[in-house]
Design goal:
The complex is a heterodimer of chains A (about 110) and B (about 425).
Chain A lengths: L1 E7 L4 H10 L6 E7 L6 E5 L2 E5 L2 E10 L4 H12 L7 E7 L17
Antiparallel strand pairs in A: 1-5, 1-6, 2-5, 3-4
Helix pairs in contact in A: 1-2
Chain B lengths: L2 H26 L7 H28 L34 H18 L10 H24 L3 H5 L7 H19 L15 H19 L8 H29 L4 H15 L10 H16 L2 H5 L7 H19 L20 H31 L6 H6 L1 H6 L17
Classes of the chains: A alpha+beta (about 110), B mainly alpha (about 425).
Chain lengths: ~110, ~425
């Protein structure tokens, strides 16, 4: 099993989620994060004092998938999340050593 | 007793009281989320502590011995003795119950020290704050109110202050400066970003302040009459013009008009018109407002130049705005607006007499407040300490001073009740 982690632009979440659902994937976990890569931040001004805000809001998606599904899922995410502008994000894959479904106790591939 | 005047003053009392919560949110929105309750608590607590001290003692020190041309009142009205439904001392020529006059003035005694909270934001210990304002209202506010509002030496001399440009704004602004000089800068200031956590709260507070200010200025006529009406119009126009002035210079210098700038400009205009409200007419409030908006915008940069951390610009808006208004009154005061204007302003043929009195009054109040406040702050610092510990400052006043969190949007990580 592999953990697919993607950092995407927040407004792309719905598109990515719909694409994954349409492809039959069961679930995913989402959290709101902040970060920057090549995309710069922005400035804000309060009573003449200018502040540089480096971090931008992003969304992180995490899905555990079977090894055989990894390439398909990565392509799905990349296509749905791409805008062509700087700041589109990244996807990376890591290994999952063990997986357990809490409700039933199923293990590993049966828990995906 | 005039029932019309009494009805209006009952309303005005409520309006001015509403300004203290308004101030609480105006400031509260501008601080970081971890400190918002600290700011709200300081302002709300002023409504508790200072009202009681005023009724028991400070009112008498301010308004006793009315018209004595001196430095302080007396103990005639301690504990609200002889402060009841009667019309009070002859010399005051009141047409409303004396107790209502006391209640109205009480709202001023509450909000004036509360103004200081903007400067000392994020680092003042709550106990030190409570001690400071409790003593300050007696030893600084009451004497100054006596000098200017109760026929004390400044009023006898000929200085004019319709609703408290000196008594409230210069006074509080100077005290704020005194406190922050002893207190020191916030951890991380000015490098670290400390921007407003909720400008919507600030805008709400601004609206409440503007609304309540009609009670502050028009209510200072102590009657429902033509002077009150002029004061109301002047208040309205000065706020509007102040906003335009600030937003205009902000757009020019910083490139964008901001909501915080609009709010600040309106407040600057309101501060400046406070001493002038019942003494000027025509379109002068527009000019006064615009000048206040421009000058205060520039004044708030002083803290970066001179290196003092006036967190929410109490010095830049209230001290400077109060000075602007008090001095402009020396130009615009008009006897046809209010027969109490004995020496008219420069622009109305009065020469520089009034302007001279305004300058003397402004400097006297500023100096007295600054010096006594510095001494009081130092004494409190040496005894119980003014400032929170660095650890407490970093975790935020809400938690460290009040054991509370303002925004518990979820129960994430909360344990159950332990005590």
């Amino acid at each position: 099993m592999k953990l697919v982690t993607a950092i995407i632009k927040p407004f792309k979440l719905d598109e990515v989620k719909d694409a994954l659902k349409a492809a039959g994937l069961a679930g995913l976990t989402v959290d709101e994060v902040r970060g920057f890569g090549r995309q710069g931040g922005h400035t804000e001004t309060y009573r003449g004092a200018e502040y540089q805000i480096d971090f931008l809001p992003k969304v992180r998606i995490q899905i555990v998938v079977a090894e055989t599904d990894v390439d398909r899922v990565v392509d799905l995410i990349v296509d749905a999340a791409r805008t062509g502008q700087i700041g589109d994000g990244k996807v990376w894959i890591t290994d999952v050593a063990k997986l357990v479904r809490i409700r039933t106790g199923e293990i590993d591939i049966d828990a995906v | 007793m005039d029932s019309g005047n009494t009805a209006w003053m009952l309303v005005a009392t409520a309006l001015v009281l509403f300004m203290t919560p308004g101030l609480a949110f105006f400031y509260g929105g501008m601080v970081r989320a971890k400190n918002v309750l600290g700011m709200l608590m300081q302002n709300f607590f002023a409504m508790g502590l200072l009202a009681v001290i005023w009724a028991v003692l400070a009112f008498s020190l301010a308004f006793g011995a009315f018209g004595n041309g001196g430095l302080i009142g007396n103990f005639d009205f301690v504990g609200l003795r002889n402060v009841a439904v009667g019309l009070g001392p002859e010399a005051m020529h009141l047409t409303i119950p004396f107790v209502l006059f006391c209640a109205y003035q009480m709202t001023f005694a509450v909000i004036t020290p509360a103004l200081i909270t903007g400067a000392t934001a994020d680092r003042l210990k709550f106990s030190a704050y409570a001690l400071f304002i409790g003593i300050w209202v007696v030893i600084v506010y009451a004497p100054v109110a006596h000098w200017v509002f109760a026929g004390g030496w400044l009023q006898k001399m000929g200085a004019l202050d319709f609703a408290g440009g000196a008594v409230v704004h210069i006074n509080a602004g100077a005290a704020a400066l005194a406190l922050i000089l002893i207190l020191g800068k916030r951890h991380g200031w000015p490098r670290e970003a400390m921007h407003p956590h909720s400008l919507p709260l600030t805008m709400l507070g601004t609206g409440i302040l503007w609304f309540g200010w009609f009670g502050f200025n028009a209510g200072s006529a102590l009657a429902a009459d033509g002077v009150a009406a002029v004061a109301a119009m002047n208040t309205f126009l000065a706020a509007s013009a102040g906003m335009l002035g600030w937003v205009a210079i902000e757009k020019w210098k910083d490139g964008r008009p901001t909501t915080l700038g609009a709010a600040s400009g309106a407040v600057a205009g309101l501060v400046a018109i406070t001493p002038c409200a019942g003494y000027v007419g025509g379109l002068s409030p527009i000019l006064i407002g615009i000048i206040a908006g421009l000058v205060c915008f520039l004044a708030i940069q002083m803290k970066y130049r001179l290196g003092y951390d006036d967190a929410l610009d109490v010095v830049g808006v209230h001290l400077v705005g109060g000075l602007v208004g008090a001095l402009l009154l020396g130009f615009f005061a008009e006897a046809s607006v209010n027969s109490a204007v004995v020496n008219q302003g420069v622009f109305h043929g009065g020469g520089f007499t009034l302007l001279g009195y305004q300058a003397i009054a402004s400097v006297s109040v500023l100096a007295f407040s600054l010096i006594i406040s510095v001494v009081l702050a130092k004494v409190i610092d040496i005894t119980i300490g003014l400032r929170v510990s660095q650890e407490d400052e970093l975790s935020g006043l809400d938690l460290s001073q009040h054991s509370e969190t303002a925004y518990a949007y979820d129960d994430f990580g909360s344990m159950g009740r332990i005590g």
